[in-house]
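Re: [ENG-882] Designed sequences occasionally contain unexpected residues at chain ends

Forwarding the minimal case from QA. Structure tokens:
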């Protein structure tokens, strides 16, 4: 799974399920891993089914921590699928179950997941409240890796409220924990988020520095999905800076994201590609790409954030005739990807 060999991972996980007895609680953990694998590939309906099965199994076994884990993943998937009523029900169940957990570690993890859910709902203050509770619990029991992970989430939420200085301070705290531990992946993640905040501050030189360092670390690790994600973020900065080689960077990112089966990241990269076309004067092509992205079932807040960087400029420049032309013909995701992937063969 770490090296993005999702199909192989799923075969192994299904083989693992076949070896476990029906009442073995480890089946729940395997189902959650299956759901996570499907989610990373952008197969949200399959992920939803896997997480739902995991929750039902955990509930039957009376395993409250695993119920919370499955519910957190389910809530996030339902939000991304636009099933907000279901997400609300799962959140209410999570809130009820938290009080039954005796482990500080599991309680902290549950609060972190609730923070992520509120983040996807756009409720930043509620997200921050849960992240802070989670961090406090993790610090009490000395779980530094989990503390750093949640600090990362908290820092990004402050950034969404435009409190950039506090955001950067919190992200730096998380980075230092990971640096002390020699956690290369964690350091790359922290640098990536710091670069994103610098981008939102319009400090493109610092953003370039942080995101380039993050990309270098991810290349050392070798995980295609993470490299593609770093490229998606760096491409926004390079488009702002007017870098001439940005199309080559985007080509590499699209190829890696496609090979990793990471459809959500493919969409982020295409959002930047549409901006590139707009900069080249190809307004109709850019508009059609945006239309395809917004109609795709995996369209999410990260893709919207990429579009927010430039889409108002396109919308201002389009004539009524051009808007009609864009709406007249839609393009499938596969049709968009084919020429881009052929460019790299």
């Amino acid at each position: 799974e770490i090296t993005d060999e999702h199909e192989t991972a799923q075969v192994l996980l299904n083989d693992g399920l076949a070896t476990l007895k029906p009442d073995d609680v480890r089946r729940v953990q395997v189902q959650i891993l299956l759901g996570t694998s499907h989610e990373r590939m952008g197969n949200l309906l399959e992920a939803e089914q896997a997480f739902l099965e995991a929750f039902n199994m955990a509930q039957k076994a009376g395993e409250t921590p695993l119920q919370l884990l499955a519910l957190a993943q389910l809530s996030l998937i339902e939000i991304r699928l636009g099933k907000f009523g279901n997400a609300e029900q799962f959140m209410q169940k999570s809130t009820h179950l938290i009080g039954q957990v005796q482990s500080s570690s599991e309680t902290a993890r549950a609060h972190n997941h609730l923070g992520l859910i509120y983040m996807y709902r756009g409720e930043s203050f509620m997200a921050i409240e849960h992240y802070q509770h989670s961090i406090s619990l993790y610090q009490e029991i000395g779980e530094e890796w989990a503390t750093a992970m949640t600090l990362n989430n908290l820092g990004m939420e402050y950034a969404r409220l435009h409190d950039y200085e506090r955001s950067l301070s919190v992200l730096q705290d998380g980075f230092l924990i990971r640096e002390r531990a020699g956690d290369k992946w964690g350091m790359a993640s922290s640098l990536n988020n710091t670069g994103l905040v610098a981008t939102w501050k319009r400090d493109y030189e610092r953003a370039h520095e942080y995101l380039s360092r993050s990309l270098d670390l991810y290349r050392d690790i070798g995980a295609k999905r993470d490299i593609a994600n770093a490229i998606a973020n760096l491409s926004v900065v390079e488009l702002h800076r007017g870098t001439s080689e940005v199309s080559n960077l985007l080509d590499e990112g699209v190829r890696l994201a496609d090979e990793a089966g990471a459809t959500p990241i493919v969409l982020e990269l295409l959002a930047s590609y549409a901006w590139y076309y707009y900069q080249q004067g190809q307004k109709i092509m850019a508009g059609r790409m945006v239309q395809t992205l917004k109609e795709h079932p995996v369209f999410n807040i990260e893709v919207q954030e990429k579009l927010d960087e430039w889409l108002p400029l396109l919308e201002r420049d389009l004539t009524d005739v051009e808007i009609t032309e864009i709406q007249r013909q839609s393009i499938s995701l596969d049709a968009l990807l084919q020429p881009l992937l052929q460019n790299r063969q």
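QA comment: On inspection the terminal residues look reasonable. Residues 162 and 201 are 8 Å apart (CA to CA). Proposing we downgrade this to a documentation issue.
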